[in-house]
Every structure is written in C-alpha cells, then in structure tokens.
Amino acid sequence: MSSDQAGGLSAAVGIYEALRRRPDPAGTASALHLGRFDHSARWTPDLLPLRAYEAVDPASLGLAGYDDFHAIPATSLDAAIERIIHVEGPVHFEVLADRLLAAAGAGRLGSRIRARIEERLAVWASGQQGGSAQTPWAALPEQSRRPAYRDWRDAPESTRQLDYVSDAELMLAIYRAVLDRECGDRETAMNEGIHAIGFTRLTAGARTRLHAPLQALLDAGMLVESDGVIAVGLLEPRQG
To answer: Measuring CA to CA, which residue among 107, 62, 67 is closest to residue 82?
Structure first.
C-alpha cells in the first residue's frame, strides 16, 4: 500500500470514528446506529465509551417465596429469563443460572434445575425473531450483532470470568484495543483488549480463549495483519 493510500485510509477512519462517537443530533435512528434494523447476524463494532456492566438484581426477578425451584410457575421463570437477557445479554448460561438461583434462594445448579432452565430458554428463543439461546450464550439479535463495550470490573464477583464473555464482546475488546490504542501485535492487542474491559492477566488460557475472536476479525477484514503488525482494516465487516 502506498503512503498516499495509507494516509487516505487513516483519514477515512478518523472521519468515521468522529461521526460514530459524536453523531449528528439531527440524524435518524437508522443513520446513527448502522445495521440497527438489519436482522442478519453481521457483527459491527460499538464505538461508544466503555460503560459499566449492568447486572440484574436477583431480588427484582420475583422468584422468591417458593419451597422448590420446580414450584416456580413457568410464566414467572420465563419473565425472569427474559429480563436477564434484556439487561445482560449476551449472557452466559452460568451467569443467567446464577441470577435465577440467587433470586429463588436455591443452593446449587443441579442437573434437574439445569434442564428446566434450558427448557425455558428454548421456549424463549422460539418466540424471538433472531433471538439466540444456543449454549452457552443467550442474546437478543442486536446484542450479538452489536454488543455493548462493557467494563466487567462492575460485574458481580461470582460471575466475573473471561470465559463468560461472549465471542462477540471479545471481538469488540480486541478491535477497540487496535482502534483506540494502536496496538502493534497480536499479543499486545489481546492483552490491551481484555485489560480495558477489566481482566488484568493474559494467561495461556486467555490466549486460547481469544484466538477465535481475533481470527474472526481478521477473516472479516475488520483487522489486517502485515509483518506481525495488526491495524484496522475495513470500516464494516465483509459479507460472509
């Protein structure tokens, strides 16, 4: 790539960032949130500032007062599941179960409770246009397509684990590390990416966990790699 081409790309990226971070207040919803009304699974990056992780208060779910988890009416359990997904999606099954167990005062996630939650999750997904409840994450279509840039330091300690962060959200963390901090190589991009969202150590397990999200960004052309250096590629992902 010539220096003129590189300079032109950098300028275009700069304009794009400015428009997405400080949108025109007179713009329409579809213009301000690209892909908002696109029900495909295409991932697009959130360029808004990092925000606090919002967790559901289990006490607000209305599941208390039952002697047994299986005594909870399906309608009540369904409403609680939907509430958790709306607030915390993409939400890992273990996180969702943690909120439900805390709300119901249940001790542990046994096989029967797990089976009931999975059953109700399947019912929820069947009633959603584009909703996903494929193990291990459940999400509304827009949450998978454009996940929020969340600070997991604000998540409840019991569920603050890198393994509970969805691939879509990890893609965003890596992308933002390259975009915001101009990280040079894979190791730095992965380290800076998870550090920004609240995870301090790039362990061997974390590297393994981040391989697929990073490769997805490269495959989509959102990031490009040359001589070991990673940079921002396309402004929008390639159509699959």
So the answer is: 62
Q: Could you say which of 95, 111, 146 is where a domain stops?
A: 146
Tell which phi-psi region holds residue 198, choosing left (phi > 0), alpha (psi between -120 and 50) or beta. Answer: left
CA distance 67 to 72: 9
C-alpha–C-alpha distance, residues 38 and 164, integer Å: 26
Q: What are phi and psi of 150, to 5 degrees?
A: -110, 145
- Answer yes or no: do 77 and 140 share one domain: yes
Q: Facing residues of 132 across strands?
A: 139
Q: What is the pLDDT of residue 236?
A: 72
Q: Which domain range does residue 201 map to?
A: 165-240
Same domain, residue pair 201 and 230: yes
Assigned domain for 41 exists = no
Q: Token pair for residue 126?
A: 């069947």
DSSP annotation of 226: E
What confidence tens digit (pLDDT) does each residue in 12-42 have?
445 445 444 444 444 433 333 333 334 345 8
> Phi and psi of 149, rounded to 5°?
-85, 95
Q: Mean pLDDT, the chain, as a whole number?
A: 85
